[in-house]
Specification:
Length: 98
């Protein structure tokens, strides 16, 4: 089941978020998607906690991730550094590397 939800912080998620609940046995997986950036996060929780609390947690996590990717300059710099490909090993692999 999916539906749009308005966020608390309009600067980070101006279009709101899409929320999806998937019941898996004794727990529920809640996914939240930002329709602008298509960033998706998910949490797993106890269904007894309540739908509203699970939605709040998923929205808070999504806001944190979207904010980091859009506005946090330290994160942007680290992501660019992480994209550098590593070179190949020059020595022969040991038995543990096979």
């Amino acid at each position: 089941m999916s539906r749009p939800v308005a966020p608390n912080n309009r600067t980070v998620l101006p279009q709101g978020a899409l929320i999806e609940f998937v019941v898996q046995g004794a727990y529920v997986k809640v996914s939240a998607v930002d329709p602008v950036t298509y960033i998706e996060v998910s949490i797993v929780g106890d269904p007894a906690v309540g739908e509203k609390a699970l939605i709040q947690q998923a929205i808070r996590k999504l806001e944190r991730i979207v904010y980091k990717r859009k506005y946090d300059k330290e994160t942007l710099g680290r992501e660019a550094d992480r994209a550098v490909p590593r070179g190949r090993r020059q020595d022969f692999p040991s038995g543990w590397d096979l």
